[in-house]
Design brief:
Elements (H helix, E strand, L loop, with lengths): L3 E2 L2 H17 L7 E7 L3 H16 L3 E7 L5 H12 L6 E4 L9 H7 L11 H9 L7 H12 L8 E5 L6 H10 L3 E5 L6 H5 L4 E4 L17 E4 L3 E2 L5 E2 L4 H4 L5 E2 L6 H20 L2
Parallel strand pairs: 1-11, 2-3, 2-4, 5-6, 5-7, 7-8, 8-11
Antiparallel strand pairs: 9-10
The structure holds adenosine-5'-diphosphate.
Adenosine-5'-diphosphate binds next to loops.
Length: 281
């Protein structure tokens, strides 16, 4: 049997339509997102321009602050301070990675938690665990929306998260736990990956390794979510999951491209709109 395809592009589109309605109800307040880009990293430039285009399509104000790679940490912190105090800005995002001479933690902690639409500030990470008004990191939160859309309830299920990064793996496990899943984390030091992933009712693959997850790693009927963004030998985008094999065994699966990817930027827009709503309350 072949799996139901979880179409991230379609879900993202319908969420963006809903966001348009929410923006229309903001009584003239235009949600504003500031993106700070430092240096010349090509991948960063591409991500930033994708984020800007997504904002334009929803009529969200997007402000791009570009700094040379030689910018100092204190210059960057001053800019963040200005954006914290700028009432036209509801979300602030500093595109990572930063040049080596700038401390990432100091920068993330300088963003006011109420404008931290990436959900990376320790206050937001803490509230993700303890509850309360917070921004959740975009990729894992997008995955929760995909599960919701397909009426896949994590409660009582065994969710296995492969990867423990601060941006994806760790918050993913917390969100699933928040929805009453039993959660196992696997990572680069896990002794027997397969023994764990085979137990998964819901498997989240976020290791950044092409074809790490084969049909042998999953159980019949599992829900398989692929966060990987790798390149194959021909330079084509591919995930961490061997899709052709696993789609024959899973009950539902996300493709790459067209799965988790389109949801991530949508959740950034979602958090920005939510922030504008909170500020205009
Ligand atoms: P991302 O931010 O997309 O999650 P990172 O590169 O920051 O990606 O993190 C990769 C994660 O994948 C790490 O937590 C690492 O422990 C995990 N990982 C890497 N190799 C393996 C492996 N062979 N088996 C299981 N987990 C792995």
């Amino acid at each position: 049997m072949s799996a139901e395809i979880i179409d991230g592009k379609k879900i993202a589109q319908s969420m963006r339509e809903q966001l348009k309605n929410r923006i229309a109800q903001l009584n003239g307040v235009k949600p504003g997102l500031a993106v700070v880009l430092i240096g010349d990293n090509q991948a960063s430039k591409t991500y930033v321009s994708m984020k800007q285009k997504a904002c334009e399509a929803l009529d969200i104000y997007s402000k791009l602050v570009k700094l040379p790679a030689s910018a100092t940490e204190s210059e960057l912190l001053d800019i963040i301070q200005e954006l914290n105090n700028d009432s036209s800005i509801h979300g602030i995002l500093v595109q990572l990675p930063l040049p080596d001479h700038i401390n990432e933690t100091s920068v993330i902690e300088a963003i006011h938690p109420s404008k931290d639409v990436d959900g990376f500030h320790p206050i937001n990470i803490g509230r993700l665990q303890t509850g309360g008004e917070a921004f959740y990191p975009c990729t894992p939160n997008g995955i929760m929306k995909m599960l919701e859309h397909h009426e896949i309830d994590p409660a009582g299920k065994h969710a296995v998260v492969v990867g423990r990064s601060n941006i994806v793996g760790k918050p993913m496990g917390q969100l699933l736990l928040g929805k009453s899943a039993t959660v196992t984390y696997c990572h680069s030091k896990t002794a027997d990956l397969k023994a764990h992933t085979r137990q998964a009712d819901i498997l989240i693959a976020a290791a950044g390794i092409r074809n790490l997850i084969t049909a042998d790693h999953i159980k019949e009927g599992a829900v398989v979510i692929d966060v990987g963004m790798n390149r194959d030998d021909e330079g084509k985008l591919c995930g961490d999951v061997d899709y052709s094999q696993c789609s024959q065994k899973a009950s539902a699966i996300t493709p790459v491209p067209g799965g988790v990817g389109p949801m991530t930027i949508t959740m950034l827009l979602f958090n920005t709109v939510e922030s504008a709503e909170r500020f205009s309350r």
